[in-house]
Amino acid sequence: MAAKRTVRRLIAGGAALAAAGWALRDVPAELGVRPLTSGEERASRIRRSPQFGDGAFFNPMPEPTRVGAPSPALLRELMKDRESRRPAGPIPVRTPPASDPSPTGLNVVWYGHASTLVEIEGRRVLFDPVWSRRVSPTPFVGPLRHHPLPVAIEQVPKVDAIVISHDHYDHLDLSTVRRLTRISKAPFLVPLGIGAHLERWGVPLYRIIELDWEEEASVAGLRFVSTAARHFSGRSLTRNDTLWGSWVVAGAQRKVFYAGDSGYFEGYAKIGADHGPFDLTLMPIGAYSPSWPDIHMNPEEAVNAHVNLGGSLLLPVHWATFTLALHPWAEPVERLWREAKARDVKIVVPRPGELVETASAQAVDAWWQAVQS
Fold this sequence. Notes:
10 helices; globular; seven-stranded mixed β-sheet; alpha/beta; 373 residues
């Protein structure tokens, strides 16, 4: 009898190990590729970049980007008030209507975090799509999604371009990229170096457009310009192998700016002067902290950047879906709303999945307050 129990334990243990191994099979691919080793053409472009020196990309802003190991004090803070960093109740999610985009209009659907679909003059552009349950290289650890996805990735309307801001896990997701590669024919527009990751993940080279800052490409009648951001990159302990950035998307009449992840910097005024004004800005408002002020802007800085850019309507992203910092869950949007009212800046705060027609955007209804009550 004891021998049978031992055999059953061994079988169960072996099955558990096999399941864990299967779940972890993609970790090496998740970590990405060192782009300087991915081919001479890409390596040569990287070495010529004004943003590259001493073996890595860097921010040309006056102050250095401060990123390091978490301090003991920060680790202690992580253990406190954890409930405040999550929504107190269910986040309301909407299913966007299935309709053709307006040939002259500008509509937007925020799916959560930074994943956003912009319909501009009859074309569709998908920014930083992340459909995974966690933003992590493994399925076992890492920030969990706080709300269901409004639609499955297969239900996203046909897109003309997929735009990536940088290679962090909450903006560039292997599983989502692989699924989009299968179901879509749209090209991926990415900052310099990220094409190495995409190639390893099975994206055909002809569908990858890599750009340095102030380089541009035309796709489906839209002009895409890679612009500056104040951030960093990396999917492992090696940092800044790939470039990060923001994006300008311009049609014949409409213009959109997507900030990606960035600390505030004075270059927003130049981007606005060179490429604006913008009918819509997608600005990150969450995951800020005094411990990393140079890489994520706070809500007041997001409003300031929007004004610098010459923005008309601001839609906040990079909040609500994942807990990535110590601030309370609803604090970013409350601070944004307060600052926008003080400065007479027009904002829209949709629920995940809610379609916004920018020409007739409704007044803010503070839906997040009901989640917290």
